[in-house]
């Protein structure tokens, strides 16, 4: 039986192509909050992401919008399979914005 599960480390795409795809998808999520968080993060840091980070980002893009927003904003517990370096960086990415809003 063939496994039809999508491969996040596609052998047909190099890391540069994956980065371009991530940047586009990060700005076109579905809810504006995620577009702003993921899009600005991708614009700022995608060039610095490792191959493993790119895989984690691609997997995160497959998760439901409301869950992703909850995990990043720390309003929902992050499942173990999403507790990654990338998630920590995303959570840190929104801290400065929160600080500005709380003033």
Instruction: Give the CATH topology.
Output: DNA polymerase, domain 1
Look at the structure and give the CATH class. Mainly Alpha
Q: What portion of the residues fall into strands of 2 or more residues?
A: under 5%
How many separate domains make up the residues?
1
Gross morphology: globular
Please give the radius of gyration in angstroms. Answer: 14 Å
**How many strand units?**
0
Helix content: 55-70%
Give the N-to-C terminal Cα separation. Answer: 57 Å
List the total number of helices: 5
Q: From the helix content, strand content and strand pairing, which structural class follows?
A: mainly alpha
Largest sheet, in brief, is:
none
> Could you give the order of the helices and strands?
HHHHH
Uncertain runs: 1-6
CATH superfamily: Flavinator of succinate dehydrogenase
Averaging pLDDT over every residue, what do you get? 86
Description:
This protein is mainly α and 103 residues long. The protein has a single domain (19-102), classed as DNA polymerase, domain 1 (Orthogonal Bundle). It has helices at 15-26, 32-45, 51-61, 65-72, 85-102. Helix 1 runs antiparallel to helix 2 (32-45) and helix 1 (15-26) runs parallel beside helix 3 (51-61). The radius of gyration is 14 Å and the shape is globular. Mean pLDDT is 86; it is low at 1-6. Pfam families: Sdh5 (PF03937). This is FAD assembly factor SdhE.
């Amino acid at each position: 039986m063939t496994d039809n599960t999508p491969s996040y480390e596609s052998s047909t795409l190099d890391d540069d192509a994956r980065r371009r795809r991530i940047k586009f998808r990060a700005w076109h999520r579905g809810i504006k909050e995620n577009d702003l968080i993921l899009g600005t993060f991708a614009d700022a840091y995608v060039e610095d992401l490792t191959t493993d980070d790119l895989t984690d980002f691609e997997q995160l893009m497959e998760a439901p919008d409301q869950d992703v927003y909850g995990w990043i904003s720390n309003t929902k517990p992050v499942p173990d399979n999403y507790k990654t370096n990338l998630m920590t960086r995303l959570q840190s990415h929104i801290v400065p914005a929160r600080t500005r809003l709380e003033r």
